[in-house]
Amino acid sequence: MERRKFTREFKLEAVKLIKERGVSYSQASRDLDVNSNVLHKWVRQFSGDPEQSFPGHGQMKPEQAEIARLRREVTKLKAERDILKKAAAYFAKESM
């Protein structure tokens, strides 16, 4: 059985159904055919950061994208540093 995927719009409508219209989690779960634990998770995510909630498959929040970019940069800089260390050791050995 393949895992179901829900669009951002569907998740936002589900959260609105619970938060704004006052529908219970169990009723929304039955109406939308989604587990109530999933609905609780969606409401928590939306409450934590409404603007950046549910970014979608393969998309990152801006902070996560920046962290990933910085990690790639650190990896590159470490590789460059190691090359320079080896070159300095090679030339220091040659001059003796």
Structural class: mainly alpha
CATH fold type of the largest domain: Arc Repressor Mutant, subunit A
Number of helices, counting only DSSP H or I runs of 4 residues or more: 4
**What's the order of the H and E elements?**
HHHH
The residue-averaged pLDDT reads 86
Strand content: under 5%
- What is the CATH first-level class name of the largest domain? Mainly Alpha
Can you describe what's shown?
- It is rod-shaped and about 80 Å long.
- The chain has helices spanning 8-19, 25-32, 36-48, 62-94.
- The protein has 2 domains: 1-58, Arc Repressor Mutant, subunit A, CATH 1.10.10; 60-96.
- With 96 residues, it is mostly helical.
- It is built from 4 helices and no strands.
- Helices cover 69% and strands 0% of the residues.
How are the SSEs placed, and which strands pair?
Blueprint lengths: L7 H12 L5 H8 L3 H13 L13 H33 L2
Helix pairs in contact: 1-3
